[in-house]
Design brief:
binds nicotinamide-adenine-dinucleotide; 503 residues; Aldehyde Dehydrogenase, Chain A, domain 1; Aldehyde Dehydrogenase, Chain A, domain 2
Length: 503
Protein backbone atom coordinates (compact mmCIF):
# COMPACT_ATOMS: atom_id res chain seq x y z
CA UNK A 1 0.00 0.00 0.00
CA UNK A 2 1.29 3.49 -0.80
CA UNK A 3 1.69 6.04 1.99
CA UNK A 4 -1.35 7.83 0.61
CA UNK A 5 -3.52 4.71 0.71
CA UNK A 6 -2.32 3.92 4.23
CA UNK A 7 -3.26 7.43 5.34
CA UNK A 8 -6.66 7.23 3.64
CA UNK A 9 -7.51 3.96 5.33
CA UNK A 10 -6.38 5.27 8.72
CA UNK A 11 -8.39 8.44 8.17
CA UNK A 12 -11.50 6.39 7.46
CA UNK A 13 -11.10 4.77 10.85
CA UNK A 14 -10.72 8.13 12.56
CA UNK A 15 -13.62 9.94 10.87
CA UNK A 16 -16.06 7.04 11.09
CA UNK A 17 -17.46 8.22 14.41
CA UNK A 18 -17.92 11.77 13.09
CA UNK A 19 -19.73 10.38 10.04
CA UNK A 20 -22.14 8.35 12.12
CA UNK A 21 -22.76 10.70 15.06
CA UNK A 22 -21.73 14.12 13.75
CA UNK A 23 -19.93 16.69 15.88
CA UNK A 24 -21.74 18.04 18.91
CA UNK A 25 -20.91 20.97 21.12
CA UNK A 26 -19.18 20.31 24.43
CA UNK A 27 -20.67 22.43 27.17
CA UNK A 28 -20.15 21.98 30.91
CA UNK A 29 -18.35 18.72 30.29
CA UNK A 30 -21.26 17.31 28.31
CA UNK A 31 -21.58 16.56 24.62
CA UNK A 32 -24.76 18.23 23.39
CA UNK A 33 -26.54 18.95 20.12
CA UNK A 34 -27.33 22.59 19.42
CA UNK A 35 -30.17 23.75 21.66
CA UNK A 36 -32.36 24.53 18.66
CA UNK A 37 -31.28 21.33 16.91
CA UNK A 38 -29.59 23.14 14.01
CA UNK A 39 -26.80 21.48 12.03
CA UNK A 40 -24.42 22.39 9.24
CA UNK A 41 -22.18 20.29 7.06
CA UNK A 42 -18.42 20.20 6.79
CA UNK A 43 -16.97 18.81 3.58
CA UNK A 44 -13.51 17.97 2.34
CA UNK A 45 -11.79 20.39 -0.04
CA UNK A 46 -10.21 17.36 -1.74
CA UNK A 47 -13.41 16.26 -3.50
CA UNK A 48 -16.17 18.23 -1.83
CA UNK A 49 -17.49 15.07 -0.18
CA UNK A 50 -19.43 15.37 3.05
CA UNK A 51 -17.32 14.66 6.12
CA UNK A 52 -20.05 15.02 8.73
CA UNK A 53 -22.75 17.17 10.22
CA UNK A 54 -21.90 19.67 12.92
CA UNK A 55 -24.04 21.21 15.66
CA UNK A 56 -24.94 24.74 14.66
CA UNK A 57 -24.65 26.60 17.93
CA UNK A 58 -26.54 29.86 18.29
CA UNK A 59 -26.99 32.51 20.97
CA UNK A 60 -28.60 30.18 23.52
CA UNK A 61 -25.75 27.65 23.20
CA UNK A 62 -23.25 30.44 23.80
CA UNK A 63 -25.29 31.55 26.82
CA UNK A 64 -25.14 28.02 28.24
CA UNK A 65 -21.41 27.79 27.57
CA UNK A 66 -20.73 31.19 29.13
CA UNK A 67 -22.77 30.20 32.21
CA UNK A 68 -20.73 26.99 32.54
CA UNK A 69 -17.46 28.91 32.11
CA UNK A 70 -18.56 31.44 34.73
CA UNK A 71 -19.54 28.75 37.23
CA UNK A 72 -16.28 26.86 36.73
CA UNK A 73 -14.07 29.93 36.98
CA UNK A 74 -13.57 30.34 40.77
CA UNK A 75 -12.50 26.73 41.34
CA UNK A 76 -10.20 26.69 38.30
CA UNK A 77 -8.66 30.04 39.27
CA UNK A 78 -8.04 28.82 42.81
CA UNK A 79 -6.79 25.34 41.94
CA UNK A 80 -3.17 25.01 43.14
CA UNK A 81 -0.88 25.92 40.26
CA UNK A 82 0.88 22.56 40.37
CA UNK A 83 -2.40 20.74 39.79
CA UNK A 84 -3.30 22.97 36.87
CA UNK A 85 0.18 22.47 35.47
CA UNK A 86 -0.20 18.68 35.67
CA UNK A 87 -3.44 18.84 33.68
CA UNK A 88 -1.83 20.95 30.95
CA UNK A 89 1.06 18.52 30.70
CA UNK A 90 -1.39 15.65 30.43
CA UNK A 91 -3.16 17.48 27.58
CA UNK A 92 0.20 17.79 25.78
CA UNK A 93 0.87 14.06 26.25
CA UNK A 94 -2.53 13.10 24.89
CA UNK A 95 -2.06 15.39 21.86
CA UNK A 96 1.24 13.65 21.17
CA UNK A 97 -0.44 10.24 21.47
CA UNK A 98 -3.12 11.27 18.98
CA UNK A 99 -0.88 13.38 16.73
CA UNK A 100 -1.45 11.20 13.68
CA UNK A 101 -5.22 11.24 14.08
CA UNK A 102 -5.17 15.03 14.52
CA UNK A 103 -2.93 15.53 11.48
CA UNK A 104 -4.97 13.27 9.20
CA UNK A 105 -8.30 14.81 10.24
CA UNK A 106 -6.91 18.32 9.86
CA UNK A 107 -5.59 17.58 6.36
CA UNK A 108 -8.90 16.09 5.26
CA UNK A 109 -10.96 18.93 6.74
CA UNK A 110 -8.75 21.84 5.60
CA UNK A 111 -6.73 20.59 2.62
CA UNK A 112 -3.41 21.26 4.35
CA UNK A 113 -0.57 18.95 3.34
CA UNK A 114 0.31 16.14 5.76
CA UNK A 115 4.02 16.98 5.70
CA UNK A 116 3.23 20.25 7.53
CA UNK A 117 0.25 19.14 9.61
CA UNK A 118 2.07 16.30 11.35
CA UNK A 119 4.37 18.96 12.79
CA UNK A 120 1.49 21.32 13.56
CA UNK A 121 -0.09 18.72 15.86
CA UNK A 122 3.19 18.41 17.77
CA UNK A 123 3.52 22.18 17.87
CA UNK A 124 0.12 22.18 19.57
CA UNK A 125 1.48 19.88 22.26
CA UNK A 126 4.55 22.12 22.60
CA UNK A 127 2.27 25.10 23.22
CA UNK A 128 0.66 23.25 26.15
CA UNK A 129 4.03 22.19 27.56
CA UNK A 130 5.43 25.70 27.26
CA UNK A 131 2.53 27.29 29.12
CA UNK A 132 2.34 24.43 31.64
CA UNK A 133 5.85 25.43 32.69
CA UNK A 134 4.69 28.98 33.20
CA UNK A 135 1.62 28.17 35.32
CA UNK A 136 3.46 28.39 38.61
CA UNK A 137 4.83 31.87 37.92
CA UNK A 138 1.81 33.32 36.10
CA UNK A 139 0.63 35.28 39.14
CA UNK A 140 4.05 36.62 40.11
CA UNK A 141 4.39 40.36 40.14
CA UNK A 142 6.86 42.96 41.28
CA UNK A 143 7.90 44.60 44.49
CA UNK A 144 8.18 48.36 43.87
CA UNK A 145 9.38 50.33 46.87
CA UNK A 146 8.68 54.03 47.35
CA UNK A 147 9.88 56.11 50.32
CA UNK A 148 6.58 55.61 52.14
CA UNK A 149 4.99 52.55 50.59
CA UNK A 150 5.82 49.08 49.48
CA UNK A 151 3.95 48.42 46.23
CA UNK A 152 3.32 44.81 45.43
CA UNK A 153 1.88 43.81 42.10
CA UNK A 154 0.08 40.56 41.48
CA UNK A 155 -1.80 39.16 38.53
CA UNK A 156 -5.16 37.44 38.58
CA UNK A 157 -6.94 35.75 35.69
CA UNK A 158 -9.47 38.05 34.04
CA UNK A 159 -12.34 35.51 34.11
CA UNK A 160 -14.12 33.46 31.46
CA UNK A 161 -12.82 34.35 28.00
CA UNK A 162 -13.98 33.75 24.44
CA UNK A 163 -11.60 32.31 21.88
CA UNK A 164 -12.51 32.61 18.19
CA UNK A 165 -10.24 30.86 15.70
CA UNK A 166 -9.94 30.71 11.90
CA UNK A 167 -9.70 27.71 9.57
CA UNK A 168 -6.05 27.94 8.63
CA UNK A 169 -4.00 25.52 10.77
CA UNK A 170 -6.95 25.50 13.17
CA UNK A 171 -5.54 22.94 15.59
CA UNK A 172 -2.24 24.69 16.20
CA UNK A 173 -3.86 28.12 16.44
CA UNK A 174 -6.45 26.89 18.93
CA UNK A 175 -3.77 25.47 21.23
CA UNK A 176 -1.82 28.66 20.93
CA UNK A 177 -4.72 30.73 22.25
CA UNK A 178 -6.20 28.22 24.70
CA UNK A 179 -3.05 26.97 26.47
CA UNK A 180 -2.07 30.40 27.91
CA UNK A 181 -5.69 31.14 28.86
CA UNK A 182 -5.88 27.97 30.94
CA UNK A 183 -2.39 28.51 32.35
CA UNK A 184 -3.43 31.99 33.47
CA UNK A 185 -6.46 30.47 35.28
CA UNK A 186 -9.18 31.60 32.87
CA UNK A 187 -12.04 29.39 31.75
CA UNK A 188 -12.92 29.41 28.07
CA UNK A 189 -15.62 29.25 25.43
CA UNK A 190 -14.08 28.26 22.10
CA UNK A 191 -15.84 29.03 18.82
CA UNK A 192 -13.82 27.38 16.04
CA UNK A 193 -14.18 28.27 12.36
CA UNK A 194 -17.18 26.72 10.67
CA UNK A 195 -15.03 25.37 7.81
CA UNK A 196 -12.78 23.26 10.05
CA UNK A 197 -14.53 21.81 13.12
CA UNK A 198 -12.90 18.34 13.36
CA UNK A 199 -9.73 18.92 15.32
CA UNK A 200 -11.33 21.50 17.65
CA UNK A 201 -13.60 18.68 18.82
CA UNK A 202 -10.71 16.24 19.27
CA UNK A 203 -8.81 18.86 21.24
CA UNK A 204 -11.71 19.55 23.59
CA UNK A 205 -12.16 15.80 24.15
CA UNK A 206 -8.48 15.46 24.97
CA UNK A 207 -8.75 18.26 27.52
CA UNK A 208 -11.57 16.49 29.32
CA UNK A 209 -9.80 13.16 29.18
CA UNK A 210 -6.79 14.87 30.75
CA UNK A 211 -8.90 15.68 33.81
CA UNK A 212 -9.92 19.25 33.11
CA UNK A 213 -12.91 20.03 35.37
CA UNK A 214 -16.23 20.42 33.59
CA UNK A 215 -17.10 23.93 32.44
CA UNK A 216 -13.48 25.05 32.19
CA UNK A 217 -13.36 24.42 28.43
CA UNK A 218 -16.54 24.77 26.44
CA UNK A 219 -16.76 24.23 22.71
CA UNK A 220 -19.54 25.78 20.66
CA UNK A 221 -19.57 25.25 16.90
CA UNK A 222 -21.49 27.57 14.65
CA UNK A 223 -21.28 30.56 12.39
CA UNK A 224 -19.51 33.79 13.11
CA UNK A 225 -22.53 36.02 12.65
CA UNK A 226 -24.55 34.01 15.21
CA UNK A 227 -22.48 32.06 17.74
CA UNK A 228 -19.36 34.20 17.28
CA UNK A 229 -21.28 37.44 17.57
CA UNK A 230 -23.09 36.41 20.75
CA UNK A 231 -19.80 35.35 22.33
CA UNK A 232 -18.29 38.77 21.69
CA UNK A 233 -21.37 40.47 23.18
CA UNK A 234 -21.82 38.26 26.22
CA UNK A 235 -21.55 40.20 29.48
CA UNK A 236 -19.93 37.32 31.39
CA UNK A 237 -17.16 36.88 28.83
CA UNK A 238 -14.42 39.24 29.91
CA UNK A 239 -12.12 39.15 26.90
CA UNK A 240 -12.01 37.91 23.32
CA UNK A 241 -8.90 36.41 21.80
CA UNK A 242 -9.50 36.44 18.07
CA UNK A 243 -7.54 35.20 15.08
CA UNK A 244 -8.98 35.95 11.67
CA UNK A 245 -9.52 38.61 9.07
CA UNK A 246 -8.99 42.29 9.77
CA UNK A 247 -12.55 43.22 8.87
CA UNK A 248 -13.92 40.60 11.28
CA UNK A 249 -11.67 42.08 13.99
CA UNK A 250 -13.25 45.44 13.35
CA UNK A 251 -16.75 43.92 13.67
CA UNK A 252 -15.81 42.21 16.91
CA UNK A 253 -14.54 45.45 18.35
CA UNK A 254 -17.92 47.06 17.65
CA UNK A 255 -19.86 44.06 18.96
CA UNK A 256 -17.85 44.05 22.18
CA UNK A 257 -18.08 47.79 22.80
CA UNK A 258 -21.19 47.71 25.01
CA UNK A 259 -19.61 45.24 27.41
CA UNK A 260 -16.16 46.96 27.25
CA UNK A 261 -14.61 43.76 26.00
CA UNK A 262 -10.85 43.43 26.17
CA UNK A 263 -9.67 42.22 22.78
CA UNK A 264 -6.58 40.61 21.37
CA UNK A 265 -6.49 40.48 17.59
CA UNK A 266 -4.26 38.51 15.27
CA UNK A 267 -5.37 39.57 11.82
CA UNK A 268 -4.38 39.57 8.18
CA UNK A 269 -1.09 40.31 6.48
CA UNK A 270 0.53 41.21 3.18
CA UNK A 271 4.03 40.50 4.29
CA UNK A 272 7.12 41.50 2.31
CA UNK A 273 10.21 39.42 1.77
CA UNK A 274 12.84 41.98 0.75
CA UNK A 275 15.84 40.59 -1.09
CA UNK A 276 18.90 42.84 -1.61
CA UNK A 277 21.55 42.01 -4.18
CA UNK A 278 24.22 41.35 -1.52
CA UNK A 279 22.17 38.55 0.09
CA UNK A 280 22.76 34.82 -0.05
CA UNK A 281 20.36 34.52 -2.97
CA UNK A 282 20.04 30.74 -2.92
CA UNK A 283 18.92 30.75 0.70
CA UNK A 284 16.64 33.74 0.04
CA UNK A 285 15.04 31.80 -2.82
CA UNK A 286 14.41 28.75 -0.62
CA UNK A 287 12.92 30.87 2.14
CA UNK A 288 10.75 33.01 -0.16
CA UNK A 289 9.29 29.89 -1.77
CA UNK A 290 8.73 28.16 1.56
CA UNK A 291 7.05 31.15 3.16
CA UNK A 292 4.40 31.59 0.48
CA UNK A 293 3.75 28.09 -0.84
CA UNK A 294 3.87 26.05 2.37
CA UNK A 295 0.51 25.63 4.15
CA UNK A 296 -1.15 26.36 0.77
CA UNK A 297 -0.26 30.02 1.26
CA UNK A 298 -3.11 30.08 3.79
CA UNK A 299 -0.80 31.46 6.39
CA UNK A 300 -0.99 34.83 8.11
CA UNK A 301 2.80 35.29 8.08
CA UNK A 302 3.23 34.17 4.47
CA UNK A 303 5.67 36.28 2.43
CA UNK A 304 3.10 37.16 -0.20
CA UNK A 305 5.10 40.07 -1.67
CA UNK A 306 8.60 39.45 -2.99
CA UNK A 307 10.52 42.72 -3.24
CA UNK A 308 13.64 42.05 -5.25
CA UNK A 309 16.50 44.40 -6.15
CA UNK A 310 16.56 45.05 -9.91
CA UNK A 311 20.25 44.14 -10.31
CA UNK A 312 19.51 40.49 -9.43
CA UNK A 313 15.83 40.28 -10.35
CA UNK A 314 16.16 38.59 -13.74
CA UNK A 315 18.20 35.66 -12.56
CA UNK A 316 16.19 35.29 -9.35
CA UNK A 317 12.94 35.31 -11.30
CA UNK A 318 14.17 32.59 -13.67
CA UNK A 319 15.10 30.28 -10.80
CA UNK A 320 11.87 31.10 -8.99
CA UNK A 321 9.68 30.19 -11.98
CA UNK A 322 11.48 26.86 -12.39
CA UNK A 323 10.96 25.99 -8.74
CA UNK A 324 7.34 27.17 -8.54
CA UNK A 325 6.44 25.06 -11.56
CA UNK A 326 7.90 22.01 -9.83
CA UNK A 327 5.99 22.36 -6.55
CA UNK A 328 4.00 19.18 -6.01
CA UNK A 329 0.27 19.85 -5.80
CA UNK A 330 -1.74 16.86 -4.72
CA UNK A 331 -3.80 14.97 -2.20
CA UNK A 332 -3.15 16.46 1.23
CA UNK A 333 -2.74 13.02 2.81
CA UNK A 334 0.09 12.12 0.45
CA UNK A 335 3.35 12.79 2.34
CA UNK A 336 4.93 13.90 -0.95
CA UNK A 337 2.39 16.68 -1.50
CA UNK A 338 3.65 20.20 -0.97
CA UNK A 339 0.46 22.13 -1.76
CA UNK A 340 -3.03 20.74 -1.17
CA UNK A 341 -6.47 22.12 -2.09
CA UNK A 342 -7.77 25.42 -0.75
CA UNK A 343 -10.16 25.13 2.16
CA UNK A 344 -13.50 25.90 0.55
CA UNK A 345 -15.27 26.97 -2.62
CA UNK A 346 -15.75 30.50 -1.32
CA UNK A 347 -12.04 30.89 -0.66
CA UNK A 348 -11.10 29.14 -3.91
CA UNK A 349 -13.24 31.67 -5.81
CA UNK A 350 -11.56 34.53 -4.00
CA UNK A 351 -8.01 33.32 -4.69
CA UNK A 352 -8.65 32.44 -8.35
CA UNK A 353 -10.35 35.81 -8.96
CA UNK A 354 -6.90 37.39 -8.55
CA UNK A 355 -5.68 35.71 -11.75
CA UNK A 356 -7.84 38.09 -13.80
CA UNK A 357 -7.25 41.00 -11.44
CA UNK A 358 -3.49 40.62 -11.96
CA UNK A 359 -3.86 40.61 -15.74
CA UNK A 360 -6.31 43.51 -15.78
CA UNK A 361 -3.85 45.55 -13.71
CA UNK A 362 -1.07 44.85 -16.22
CA UNK A 363 0.98 42.31 -14.26
CA UNK A 364 2.23 39.03 -15.76
CA UNK A 365 1.29 35.55 -14.59
CA UNK A 366 4.70 33.90 -14.81
CA UNK A 367 3.65 30.58 -13.23
CA UNK A 368 0.38 28.94 -12.30
CA UNK A 369 -2.68 31.12 -12.68
CA UNK A 370 -5.07 28.20 -13.13
CA UNK A 371 -6.98 25.60 -11.19
CA UNK A 372 -5.82 21.99 -11.23
CA UNK A 373 -8.32 19.23 -11.99
CA UNK A 374 -12.08 19.68 -11.97
CA UNK A 375 -12.78 18.28 -8.53
CA UNK A 376 -11.95 19.91 -5.23
CA UNK A 377 -10.20 23.23 -4.82
CA UNK A 378 -6.71 22.68 -6.18
CA UNK A 379 -4.85 25.71 -7.52
CA UNK A 380 -1.49 25.78 -9.29
CA UNK A 381 1.16 27.65 -7.27
CA UNK A 382 1.09 31.08 -8.84
CA UNK A 383 3.73 33.73 -9.41
CA UNK A 384 2.89 37.19 -10.65
CA UNK A 385 5.73 39.33 -12.01
CA UNK A 386 5.97 42.90 -13.35
CA UNK A 387 3.76 44.00 -10.50
CA UNK A 388 3.68 47.55 -9.19
CA UNK A 389 3.24 48.46 -5.56
CA UNK A 390 -0.25 49.92 -5.93
CA UNK A 391 -1.78 47.00 -7.84
CA UNK A 392 -4.44 45.01 -6.00
CA UNK A 393 -2.27 41.86 -6.10
CA UNK A 394 0.38 43.87 -4.24
CA UNK A 395 -2.02 45.38 -1.70
CA UNK A 396 -4.69 42.83 -0.78
CA UNK A 397 -4.38 39.67 1.28
CA UNK A 398 -5.07 36.82 -1.16
CA UNK A 399 -4.28 34.02 1.31
CA UNK A 400 -3.37 31.34 -1.21
CA UNK A 401 -0.29 29.96 -3.00
CA UNK A 402 0.09 33.26 -4.81
CA UNK A 403 3.28 35.33 -4.85
CA UNK A 404 3.51 38.86 -6.21
CA UNK A 405 6.99 39.97 -7.30
CA UNK A 406 7.89 43.67 -7.32
CA UNK A 407 11.27 45.05 -8.36
CA UNK A 408 13.04 47.96 -6.65
CA UNK A 409 16.23 49.98 -7.20
CA UNK A 410 17.20 51.45 -3.86
CA UNK A 411 16.85 50.68 -0.18
CA UNK A 412 14.58 53.74 0.24
CA UNK A 413 12.28 52.52 -2.50
CA UNK A 414 12.17 49.03 -0.98
CA UNK A 415 11.17 50.49 2.37
CA UNK A 416 8.48 52.63 0.86
CA UNK A 417 6.96 49.66 -0.99
CA UNK A 418 7.30 47.35 2.02
CA UNK A 419 5.48 49.82 4.28
CA UNK A 420 2.98 50.93 1.66
CA UNK A 421 0.18 48.53 2.63
CA UNK A 422 -2.45 48.62 5.34
CA UNK A 423 -1.00 45.54 7.05
CA UNK A 424 2.06 45.08 9.26
CA UNK A 425 2.30 41.51 10.53
CA UNK A 426 5.68 40.09 9.53
CA UNK A 427 8.61 40.98 7.30
CA UNK A 428 11.62 39.11 5.96
CA UNK A 429 14.85 40.88 5.02
CA UNK A 430 17.70 39.31 3.10
CA UNK A 431 21.02 41.17 3.11
CA UNK A 432 24.57 40.56 4.26
CA UNK A 433 25.09 44.23 5.04
CA UNK A 434 24.69 44.43 8.81
CA UNK A 435 24.14 48.15 9.07
CA UNK A 436 21.56 48.02 6.31
CA UNK A 437 19.76 45.20 8.14
CA UNK A 438 19.66 47.29 11.32
CA UNK A 439 18.60 50.45 9.46
CA UNK A 440 15.94 48.67 7.45
CA UNK A 441 14.37 46.65 10.25
CA UNK A 442 14.22 49.81 12.40
CA UNK A 443 11.92 51.40 9.86
CA UNK A 444 10.01 48.37 8.59
CA UNK A 445 6.43 48.46 9.89
CA UNK A 446 5.85 44.92 11.15
CA UNK A 447 5.35 43.19 14.47
CA UNK A 448 7.84 40.43 13.61
CA UNK A 449 10.86 40.55 11.33
CA UNK A 450 13.26 37.80 10.37
CA UNK A 451 16.66 38.72 8.89
CA UNK A 452 18.21 36.10 6.62
CA UNK A 453 15.66 33.56 7.78
CA UNK A 454 12.22 32.21 7.13
CA UNK A 455 9.64 32.36 9.92
CA UNK A 456 10.96 30.25 12.78
CA UNK A 457 8.65 30.53 15.76
CA UNK A 458 10.28 30.84 19.17
CA UNK A 459 7.56 30.46 21.79
CA UNK A 460 8.96 32.93 24.36
CA UNK A 461 9.09 35.72 21.72
CA UNK A 462 6.18 38.10 21.11
CA UNK A 463 3.92 37.22 18.18
CA UNK A 464 1.56 39.76 16.62
CA UNK A 465 1.19 42.58 14.18
CA UNK A 466 0.92 46.35 13.79
CA UNK A 467 -1.48 48.48 11.70
CA UNK A 468 -4.40 46.39 10.36
CA UNK A 469 -2.61 43.17 11.34
CA UNK A 470 -3.53 43.14 14.96
CA UNK A 471 -3.66 44.40 18.48
CA UNK A 472 -1.67 42.79 21.28
CA UNK A 473 0.96 40.08 21.40
CA UNK A 474 1.00 36.36 22.06
CA UNK A 475 3.81 34.29 23.46
CA UNK A 476 5.75 34.18 26.69
CA UNK A 477 4.55 36.60 29.30
CA UNK A 478 2.71 38.70 26.70
CA UNK A 479 -0.10 36.15 26.65
CA UNK A 480 -0.56 36.54 30.40
CA UNK A 481 -0.79 40.31 30.09
CA UNK A 482 -3.89 39.75 28.01
CA UNK A 483 -5.52 36.96 30.02
CA UNK A 484 -4.74 38.46 33.43
CA UNK A 485 -5.45 41.62 35.41
CA UNK A 486 -2.61 43.49 37.09
CA UNK A 487 -3.28 44.47 40.65
CA UNK A 488 -1.16 46.87 42.69
CA UNK A 489 -1.35 46.73 46.49
CA UNK A 490 0.45 49.47 48.43
CA UNK A 491 1.47 48.82 52.06
CA UNK A 492 2.43 51.81 54.21
CA UNK A 493 5.93 51.39 55.61
CA UNK A 494 5.28 53.65 58.60
CA UNK A 495 3.41 56.74 59.69
CA UNK A 496 3.96 58.95 56.66
CA UNK A 497 2.24 62.35 56.63
CA UNK A 498 -1.36 62.10 55.43
CA UNK A 499 -2.77 65.41 54.14
CA UNK A 500 -5.33 66.53 56.75
CA UNK A 501 -8.45 68.32 55.57
CA UNK A 502 -11.08 69.95 57.77
CA UNK A 503 -8.77 70.10 60.75
P1 LIG B 1 -12.61 35.08 9.51
O1 LIG B 1 -12.36 36.43 10.11
O2 LIG B 1 -13.57 34.98 8.40
O3 LIG B 1 -13.13 34.06 10.61
C1 LIG B 1 -12.42 33.79 11.79
C2 LIG B 1 -13.38 33.37 12.88
O4 LIG B 1 -14.23 34.47 13.21
C3 LIG B 1 -14.31 32.22 12.51
O5 LIG B 1 -14.43 31.36 13.62
C4 LIG B 1 -15.62 32.92 12.22
O6 LIG B 1 -16.74 32.11 12.42
C5 LIG B 1 -15.57 34.05 13.23
N1 LIG B 1 -16.43 35.20 12.91
C6 LIG B 1 -16.81 35.65 11.70
N2 LIG B 1 -17.61 36.72 11.84
C7 LIG B 1 -17.74 36.97 13.16
C8 LIG B 1 -18.43 37.93 13.94
N3 LIG B 1 -19.17 38.90 13.39
N4 LIG B 1 -18.32 37.88 15.27
C9 LIG B 1 -17.57 36.94 15.88
N5 LIG B 1 -16.91 35.98 15.20
C10 LIG B 1 -16.99 36.00 13.86
O7 LIG B 1 -11.17 34.53 9.11
P2 LIG B 1 -10.84 33.19 8.31
O8 LIG B 1 -11.18 33.44 6.88
O9 LIG B 1 -11.40 32.04 9.04
O10 LIG B 1 -9.24 33.12 8.49
C11 LIG B 1 -8.31 33.70 7.64
C12 LIG B 1 -7.82 35.04 8.19
O11 LIG B 1 -7.18 34.85 9.45
C13 LIG B 1 -6.75 35.67 7.31
O12 LIG B 1 -7.02 37.04 7.18
C14 LIG B 1 -5.46 35.46 8.09
O13 LIG B 1 -4.42 36.37 7.82
C15 LIG B 1 -5.94 35.56 9.49
N6 LIG B 1 -5.00 34.93 10.40
C16 LIG B 1 -4.20 35.74 11.19
C17 LIG B 1 -3.25 35.17 12.04
C18 LIG B 1 -2.34 36.03 12.87
O14 LIG B 1 -1.69 35.48 13.75
N7 LIG B 1 -2.25 37.31 12.64
C19 LIG B 1 -3.14 33.78 12.10
C20 LIG B 1 -3.97 32.99 11.30
C21 LIG B 1 -4.91 33.60 10.47
Amino acid sequence: MSDLQTHISKLEGYVHRFKTSGIENLIDGESRPAAKGGKFETSSPVDNSLICEVAKGEASDIDDAAAAAKAAFPAWRDMPAKERKAILIRIAELIEERAEEIALCECWDTGQAFRFMSKAALRGAANFRFFADKVTSARDGQNLQSPTLMNVTTRTPIGPVGIITPWNTPFMLSTWKIAPALAAGCTIVHKPAEFSPLTARILAEIAHEAGLPKGVWNLVNGFGEEAGKRLTEHPDIKAIAFVGESRTGSLIMKQGADTLKRVHFELGGKNPVVVFDDADLDRALDAAIFMIYSLNGERCTSSSRLLIQKSVAKDFQKKLIERVNKIRVGHPLDPKTEVGPLIHEEHFNKVTSYFDIAKEDGATIAAGGKRIGDKGYFVAPTLVTNAKAQMRVAQEEIFGPFLTMIEFDTEEEALEIANGVEYGLSGYVWTNDLTRAIRFTEKLEAGMIWVNSENVRHLPSPFGGVKASGIGRDGGDWSFEFYMEQKNIAFALGDHAIPRLGV
